[in-house]
Amino acid sequence: MRDYWLSKLFFDLQSPAMAAEFRAARDQVIARYPLDERVKRAIAENDVPFLAARTNPYLLRYYFFAAGMKDDEFIRRLNHG
Amino acid sequence: MASFAGAFAASHGPLIIREWQRVPVEQQRRMSAAYRELGRRLTAAEADVLIVISPDHWSNFFLDNYPAVCIGVGERHDGPPEPWMKDFPHRTIAGHPQLAMHIAGTALAQGYEPAVSHRLKIDHGSCIPLWRMELERLPKIVPLLVNSIEPPMPSLARCYRWGELLRQAIESYPEPTRVAILGTGGLSHSIGEPTMGAIYEDFDRETIRLFSRPADELIQYLDAELPTSGNGSEEIRNWLVAHGAAGGRGFELVDYLPVPTVIVGCGFAAWRV
Q: How many structural domains are present in chain B?
């Protein structure tokens, strides 16, 4: 299953300018996307398995890399929540 | 007429750049030597044009429209958009629109329907091998983006046939141009899924072995094993395109080494043509 707007957010965050804006004002950026409340909560909580079920794995990995999560932590959360 | 100048393949994982300083010295040495050897052979092949086969890592396409195959037909392409590729020495890359459009026309005439793009971003998938091969002169590049990132993906058999089609297109192009092919990516790796970091060395070695067997045997093995060998391994499609272009005659393995630091089974090959 693909959540289009979640995927679009992650895709757009590949832009360095957008990523910088996201780091500075995360809620403001998220508000531009018609995301389900549960998806917003998963982003806020770094709920990797929930998000993994809704987007492409490359976009998912990119997002958490850009968000500063180390690969070891990403893999741990991916497997264990 | 144009002529086929050779086919090559090399891995392209992002950590080859981002984590290079953490790669053990002996593995650095072997990878660097393998890339340089491919660069030496490509230089010796005197290619005017290089068709580079890679997936698009969400640099150009999104869920709105993700083509199975896209040919870059522009006069110029943009260099890699990834911030960590900022030191790649080319911010734009010359294309070869005449050959690219000839490939597209040849494909359409034979019942293939590739997308075309007049301005592509050429991401790390193509640019890491081009960079690491240390080419003194970059040939003109025709990008062939083959989807191995987002399902549904073109079948493995179709990718092999795409290689045969490229060979036909090259050999029917009326200008005296030498054209080589570089397949990028693979071998096994796993990205953004629970097995992330895994390298399936047995899969890699068997895949390498089967490249010297009839193509049907190789494709049958890959069809069976790819679903459990890491999503990054889907990039073997790009090697299959090169294989088809080279007539399925098998390659000389320049090197293979699993490199946990870059989470890729790194392969380097030059086809017997």
A: 1
